[in-house]
Amino acid sequence: MVTVFKDFDVFVEISLKEDCMYENIRGLSFAQISRFVELKVPTLNARTKTLFKDEELIRGKTNKVLLKPEQVKTVINDQINDCNGKVIYIGNLKGGVGKTTIAYLLADIVSSLGFKTCAVDLDVQANLTQQFMEAKVEQPTFCDVIDNKINIKDIIINIAPTLDLIPSSLKNGIIQKSLLTQAPKHYLTWLNSLCLTYLRSKYDIIIVDTPPSLTTLNSVFCLCLKNNDHLVIPACADEFSIVGIGMFLEDVNLIRKSYKTTSKPKTSIIMNRFHQNQTLNLQMFVKMSKTYEEFFSKIVIKDLAKIREVTSNKTSISETKHSSELFEILAELLKEFNIVKTVS
């Protein structure tokens, strides 16, 4: 498969067969699916037999039925919420807090469940991009959209049946400079017309991974968040994380106040890479939970070897075994972001 980008300074061809590092999602078993929704394996099995013919199903090495993403969504339809262009924006001024890790895991699981997903990489380090494919400097990125050289739909790369990517590269480092040289604009209207209106219409979920810095583009993305969207702030148990959260929230509130924005996207501060046996971690956890009590999530992501293994090997959750803690974390994230329904 070759994706071709036209109307650009150079004619760029990217062969996904050669460059893509992310294998297409093969399918989820009933046991895996049941960990994420309130349905038991026998129920999933019965629904599948009713909805699909046997020849429509794929099977694993042990002859277990594996549902493709589109099939999963059909089977669990009553257990999921209508996301309808939901933006999950992941940011913090503190680097090394696991923004890209959460973005990757979240993109993988929601696309595996059948949600049409777009992962947006805005970080010049292109770490999220490299989880899925090789990052190339000549590759069209968001910077080219900002400069009006290319349309947003023409920089999107298909990774898997329900997963697309807007890649990043070092070129995105000049976005701030480009915006400063452009004519003044009403940023809310501008970003919606530039990309968000199109992305919301095409995808169920848009996951945005950001650099650890205050930039105009980052601020404007937060400005455009709606009631159904989610602002996610990963944090580690250290003083810089606390300071970074404060500065980040101050910037978000300032721009939203200046535009008199009335929408109220949910904000979640999630403790990540947590070492529960370290006294300093526990002390910082208590301090952070008191400082940001209103936004502090109950989810605590431990520093798990399985998470490092999955991200290092660039594997999908469908290929992951012996990972009860990881599956539990993903299940909680799906509920936190109001993607799957919870039993009241």
Summarize the structure.
This protein is of the alpha/beta class and 344 residues long.
Explain what you see.
This protein is 40% helix and 17% strand. It is α/β, with parallel strands linked by helices and 344 residues long. The chain has a single domain (80-336), classed as P-loop containing nucleotide triphosphate hydrolases (Rossmann fold, 3-Layer(aba) Sandwich), CATH 3.40.50. The strands form three sheets. The protein has an eight-stranded mixed sheet, sandwiched between helices. Strands 3-5-4 form a three-stranded antiparallel sheet. A hairpin with a 5-residue loop joins strand 4 (58-59) and strand 5 (65-67). The longest helix is centred in the last third of the chain and has 20 residues, at 239-258. The radius of gyration is 20 Å and the shape is globular.
CATH class: Alpha Beta
The CATH superfamily name is P-loop containing nucleotide triphosphate hydrolases
- Secondary-structure element order, N to C: EEHEHHEEHEHEHHEEHHEHEHEHEHH
Query: What is the number of beta strands?
Result: 13
Q: Percentage of helical residues? A: 40-55%
How is the largest sheet built, in terms of strand order? Answer: 8-9-7-10-6-11-12-13
CATH architecture: 3-Layer(aba) Sandwich
For this structure, the CATH topology is: Rossmann fold
